[in-house]
Write a structure and sequence with these properties.
It is a single chain. By secondary structure, the protein is of the alpha/beta class. It has helices at 3-16, 44-50, 64-77, 95-108, 139-146, 167-171, 191-197, 209-218, 225-234, 238-245, 251-267, 269-277, 305-315, 320-330, 336-351, 433-442; strands at residues 23-27, 34-39, 59-61, 84-88, 113-116, 121-126, 129-134, 153-157, 178-182, 200-203, 287-290, 298-301, 358-359, 369-370, 379-382, 396-400, 410-413, 418-421. The protein folds into three domains: 3-203, Rossmann fold (3-Layer(aba) Sandwich); 251-282 and 305-351, no CATH class; 358-449, no CATH class. The strands form five sheets. It has a seven-stranded mixed beta sheet, sandwiched between helices. A four-stranded mixed beta sheet has the order 15-16-17-18, with no helix packed on it. Strands 1-2-3 form a three-stranded antiparallel beta sheet, covered by helices on one side. A hairpin with a 4-residue loop joins strand 17 and strand 18 (418-421). Helix 8 (209-218) packs across helix 9 (225-234), helix 9 (225-234) packs across helix 10 and helix 11 (251-267) packs across helix 12.
Length: 451
Amino acid sequence: MTGTVLKLEEFRKALWDGTSNIQQTVVIGGESSKHKYLELRPFMDCLCQIWPPIAEVPALLIRQEYIESYNALVKDASDPSAIGTVVTGQSGIGKTLFLFYVLVMRLQARQPVAIETDQSEYFVFTEAGVSIEPKGNSLVDILRRWTSSTQVWALSNSSIDLDQPSSGFRRARSLGAYLIQATSPCVHRWKQWLKEYGARMFVMDLWPEDELFALGSLIGVEDPHTLVAAARKWGPSPRKLISLHQGRLSSQNLDSILNAKARKIANDPIGMLIKVEDASLESDVVFVRPSSNKRHSFAAWIPSEYICLIIASALRGVAAANQAAFFQYMDSSAYSCATKWLFEGWVHTRFLQIDHISCHWQQSPALHGPLPTLGRNDIIVGQPCVLRDCSLSKPFYWQPSTSDIEGTDSVLYDTEGIYVIQSTISWTSRSVETGLDEIKANLPPAFNTVP
C-alpha cells in the first residue's frame, strides 16, 4: 500500500467501524441554536488527495439542506429503477462539500462508495478497503472485484477538469450503482447525461442567515454578524462571502463584477434572463433556487435590494424599449419580491439623472411639465428623521435608507413644491396616508406652507 492509500484506509476504517468522532456540535447563541459539523482536520491529508481545495475547509458545517438532500437521495436510491441524481443550485453554496458529507454518511452506514473529482483518477471505498484507480480502469471491474453489494453510490464532482460524470461512472449503473453528480446550474455539465440516462434533478436551496452565522463562528470570523450583513447586501453565497472576509476579493471588485453583469442584462433583458432561468448562464446578480418543495426545477431570484439597485442603475443607460421589456418580463411571480425593489431603484436613478424628467399628472393636466434637475449634492439618504435638517431655500431628493415607509418611496422638493413619490408597477397602489403623516411629522414646520 502507498502512503496515500494507507491514510485513506485509516479514514475509511474509522468511519466504517464507528471509532471516529468526526461529527461534532457547535452551539451558537444558546441551546436553541445548535449546529452539527464534521471535524475534518484529523483526516485532512488524505481528503486533500481526493479534492485539494478541501484543505480550506477544516470543519464542514452540516446544513439542514444537506440532511434533507441526503434523505431525498436515500429515498430515491431505494427505487430499483432509479438511475441517479444531478444535485445543483447557485454557485458557491457548497455542493462539492455536500458530496463529502455524502461520502462520510455512506461510510458510516458501512456502504461502498466511489468518488471522482477530476479526469485523472477516482477513489473506491468498500468493505475490503480503499483503491485509487486511474480513469482508464473500469469502475465496473473494480466493483466486481471489491464488493458484492448492490448499494454502491458513485459520486462525481463537476469542475473545470470534469464537466460530466465519466463514462466509467455512468456504465457502473449496470451493477446497480447509484450516480450522484454535484454541479453548477450550467446545462452543458448535466443535461446530456441526465436526459440520456433518465436521472432526476435536485436543486439545493440557498443559505439561511442562522447557518451563515454558524459558519462564521465555525471558521473564526470575529463577529459573524458581518457575514450575515454581507449576505444581505451581496447575496447568500458563502464562497463569495468568505473571499470578501479573507481579503481575496474586495467589495470594489465585487461591485465592478456585479455592475458589468447587470449591464449585460440591461442590454438584452429577455435573452439574458431566459438564459439564467434555463440554466445556460450563471449569474451573480440573478440567483437560482428551487422552484417548489419538490426541488426538481429552478426559479430565478434576485437576492438583495442592493443588487436590485445595481440592476436599476444599469437600466438607466439603455433604451426605453429595453427598460420596458425588462419590467414586463420581471412582472411575474418568480420575481415578485424583487420587482418592487427594482422599480423603486430605477425611479431613484431616473430622478437623479442630468436630463430633465417630464412629469404628467393624471388628474391635473395643467401641471404637466419638467421636474427640476438635481445634482448629487441634493440627494439625502436616510430615515425620515433626516428631513428635519432640510431648508426651504435648497432643493432636495430624499431616498429612504429602508423600504418600510408605508406608501412612500421618495420625496422631491424644488423650492416651489414638494412631491411625495410612490413607485409602483401595480394597478393597486399602497395606501399613502401613513407614509404622508410620517413625512409631515419630520419636515420642519416651514414646509407646511409649501404646496
